[in-house]
Automatic annotation (TrEMBL):
Residue ranges, compositional bias (Polar residues): 1-12
GO molecular function term, any single one: acetylglucosaminyltransferase activity
Gene, per the UniProt record: A4gnt
Species name: Psophia crepitans
Protein name, as recorded: A4GCT acetylglucosaminyltransferase
Keywords, comma-separated and alphabetical: Glycosyltransferase, Golgi apparatus, Membrane, Transferase, Transmembrane, Transmembrane helix
GO cellular component: Golgi membrane
Length: 392
């Protein structure tokens, strides 16, 4: 699916075909590790003397070592030890290999922006801290396989996120993502330059395809995680009888997501904001469930899909989004929330977190993305102050 980089059990990296024969052994490449199956595990008797037999024995021991190493590598992937035991190995993995680990947390950047904003960085960092045993993946449309961005990048947020052991940043290749889904034909026919809401529409489509193929949780890049979501198949209610698509989770190949993709194409209208997003999720949920109003903080459930209470992600509704950037007289704990959506789409005046402002947003940054707060808020303001003093 994606461009492949194959990683051997010894930690080396080589490009290759999935299966092949070489030097009398069969090699099978899978998910970043190599299994070597010895066709002749025992050296045959050789009349030329014991010297050659000893050499063959050493070769056999070496091959067995690599075989065992491959098994241990696979176990580390499956056990979650991968992130803590082999932090450098992640730089050799492809998007598909990481997604196949399962239960990924997926973020999307469908603009050409290469420098993540502090809010994007906070969203990704907070997820990485809350879900330490799960891959956190940021797909960026502006990033290509030829873009040289790494730990030494001049983009501070990119370097910050890349250094986190379970965070992966990959190019977003939409044509590849839409393969084998109902969205491919739509993507091949649509003209992005003529689309009024292309950034949002392409994001709506990409999140559906990725979750359908690989499963996991999708989150908008203005969602700050504060505790783990205990549900596997869920939609987030923005208000009673209305679903958001800013955060949702399903196992791979779930029928509801497939039906959403088909309806995306059937009812496509790119001129109506949200028609392929929250309105899509809401109309598809209504075909399955008789939606009722929420009372208190209970969740609803229908056909094994949890419809989570607005308090879980939207305790501050979008008309009041500015309260995140205000100083609160009393402390808020959001005890009924799993994450908080900061409604960045509504933030037309581009309000930001300012060090020392004591706003709710600043408190959230300090608590759930402290590295972002220190590097991109405090240190950035210090650097700006130093430059100003130098000019004066």
């Amino acid at each position: 699916m994606f461009q492949s980089v194959w990683v051997s059990s010894a930690g080396s990296c080589a490009s290759g075909e999935p299966d092949g024969h070489r030097d009398g052994k069969q090699t099978s490449w899978k998910c970043g590790f190599v299994r070597t199956i010895i066709q002749h595990p025992c050296p045959r008797h050789d009349s030329k003397g014991p010297g050659k037999a000893r050499m063959l024995k050493k070769i056999q021991i070496c091959l067995c070592f690599f075989f065992v190493s491959g098994i241990l590598y696979e176990i580390s992937l499956l056990s979650g030890c991968f992130f803590s035991c082999m932090p450098m190995a992640k730089h050799f993995l492809t998007p598909e290999q990481v997604l196949n680990l399962g239960k990924s947390i997926i973020f999307l950047e469908t603009t050409e922006r290469l420098e993540p904003t502090p809010l994007v960085s906070c969203s990704v960092e907070s997820a990485a801290r809350i879900y330490q045993d799960r891959p956190i993946i940021l797909f960026m449309k502006g990033l290509t396989n030829d873009t040289a961005l790494d730990l030494n990048s001049s983009y501070a947020a990119f370097s910050l996120l890349s250094s986190m052991k379970n965070v992966f940043i990959f190019p977003l290749q939409m044509e590849t993502v839409f393969q084998e889904t109902p969205l491919l034909q739509w993507y091949n026919e649509v003209v992005p330059e003529q689309e009024k809401n292309w950034v949002h529409v392409s994001s709506d489509a990409s999140r559906l395809a990725l979750i359908w193929k690989y499963g996991g949780i999708y989150m908008d890049t203005d969602v700050i995680s504060i505790r783990p979501i205990p549900e596997e198949s869920f939609l987030a209610a923005q208000k009673s009888r209305f679903s958001s698509n800013g955060i949702f989770g399903f196992p791979a190949h779930h029928k509801f997501i497939w039906d959403c993709m088909e309806n995306f194409v059937l009812k496509y209208n790119g001129n109506i904001w949200g028609n392929q997003g929250p309105f899509l999720m809401t109309r598809m949920l209504k075909t399955l469930c008789n939606l009722t109003d929420f009372k208190g903080t209970e969740d609803h459930s229908c056909q094994n899909i949890s419809f989570l209470n607005p308090q879980r992600f939207y305790p501050i509704p979008y008309p009041a989004w500015g309260r995140y950037y205000e100083v609160w007289d009393k402390s808020l704990h959001f005890n009924h929330s799993y994450a908080l959506h900061l409604w960045n789409f509504m933030n037309h005046n581009r309000k930001t977190v300012v060090a020392g402002s004591n706003t709710l947003a600043e408190k959230l940054y300090k608590a759930y993305c402290p590295t972002t707060y220190e590097d991109l808020i405090q240190n950035a303001e210090l650097r700006d102050f130093t430059r100003t003093e130098d000019v004066v």
